[in-house]
Amino acid sequence: MQAIKQYTDVINGHVTVDLPNDFTAQRVELIILSADDRDADSGNFQRFLLDSPEMTDEEFQAIDEKRRHLNRWT
After folding, report:
1. Is residue 27, in this structure, part of any structural domain at all?
2. 58: three-class secondary structure by DSSP
3. Does residue 65 form part of some domain?
4. I need a labelling partner for 35 at 20 to 30 A (CA). Which of 8, 14, 17, 23 fits?
5. What pTM was estimated for this model as a whole?
């Protein structure tokens, strides 16, 4: 499968994609994503992860112990 990823500007509601000469497909699938929104969403998710509470070693050990106990159950 040949794939092309590029960023381009939307001008008057139109997008132009120039394909290389060796791109031989006769039919293509286009997926249009807003690069501006994607960058903002990515930053929000990173901020969410950084702001999330951390688990102490004791909390992890308690969860791991419960998981091992449940895994023995048939």
Report:
1. no
2. helix
3. yes
4. 23
5. 0.42
Task: Please write the tens of the pLDDT for every residue from 4-26.
Answer: 888 899 999 999 999 999 988 99
Q: Which residue has the tokens 């690069």?
A: 35
Virtual CA dihedral for 36, 39, 41, 45, nearest 10 degrees?
-170
SS3 of 1-62: the string is CCCCCCCCCCECCECCCCCCCCCCCCCCCCCCCCHHHHHHHHHHHHHHHHHCCCCCHHHHHH
Establish if 41 belongs to a structural domain.
yes
User: Distance between CA atoms of 55 and 67, rounded to whole angstroms?
Assistant: 16
Task: Read off the amino acid at residue 74.
Answer: T
The amino acid sitting at 24 is T
Does a structural domain hold residue 15?
no
Read off the pLDDT of residues 40-53 as tens digits, 9 standing for 90 and up.
566 778 888 888 88
Query: How many domains are there within the chain?
Result: 1
